[in-house]
Amino acid sequence: MSDWYVAVAVRDVSSNRAELLAQSVVEALAGDGIIQSVLDPEAVLGGVGGYRPGPRIAEVYERLVTEVEFWRLVTNGMEPCIGRWVNSLGFTCLDGFTCSECNQKFAPGDDSVAGPFAGAIGEFMIGVDDPTVCCPSCGAAHSVRNWLTVPHFGFVNLAFQFWNWPPFGTSSWKVNIPAIVQEVTDHQVIVTHGRL
């Protein structure tokens, strides 16, 4: 079994506000007992560490009998990602690319889109705020953020990766974590995922 994450990417956050908003989200989730308040360097893969599930996690997530208690896994932290973030591990489980102009779908391995898309990720990471990718079908060049992908790639300055947590939005969750993040940050969020 490989590790994965569910991520909440926060849209339209400037780089100079990302750290403050991240701290506000950590405080809100820790205050609700969803995560612990102390950063643990062993809780996530890479990065500076994460916040392990909190004391109320078994109350706010009703586990199915077939599921493991994810709060007991070694890698199980919520990792704030401050600064330019792209869901690069989304490529491992990508369904494909769809042009938002003409709705033409391209396979994950179609180099006419995958290559330019990978290039746009590189551009974003080095400072281009809104790189574009040209659709080989209709010729429209539009923001990489507007391409439809499952999972979404984010292209944000603030995200929260929940390592090995179950997908949000199922009836097992008794709280809406993406809604909490959206309320605390006062920005729209995108829920996405990635896998090693």
Would you write up a description of this structure?
With 196 residues, this protein is of the alpha+beta class. The chain folds into 2 domains: 4-86 and 153-195, no CATH class; 95-149, no CATH class. It contains 4 helices and 11 strands; from the N terminus they run βαββαβββαββββαβ. It has helices spanning 18-31, 57-60, 111-125, 177-185; strands spanning 4-10, 35-40, 50-53, 78-86, 97-98, 105-106, 132-134, 141-143, 148-149, 154-163, 189-195. The strands form 4 sheets. It has a 4-stranded antiparallel beta sheet with strand order 4-10-1-11. Strands 6-5-9 form a 3-stranded antiparallel beta sheet, with no helix packed on it. A hairpin with a 6-residue loop joins strand 5 and strand 6 (105-106). The longest helix is centred in the middle third of the chain and has 15 residues, at 111-125. It is globular and about 50 Å long.
The DSSP helix count reads 4
Major sheet characteristics: 4 strands, antiparallel
Report the helical percentage.
10-25%
Q: Which range does the strand content fall in? A: 25-35%
Q: What are the secondary-structure elements, in order, as H or E? A: EHEEHEEEHEEEEHE
Annotation, overall tally of beta strands: 11
Spatially, the strands of the biggest sheet line up as 4-10-1-11
Number of domains: 2
Mean pLDDT: 95
Rounded to an integer in angstroms, the radius of gyration calculated over CA atoms is 17 Å
Outline = globular
Poorly predicted parts? none
Distance between the termini: 10 Å
Helix/strand/pairing category = alpha+beta
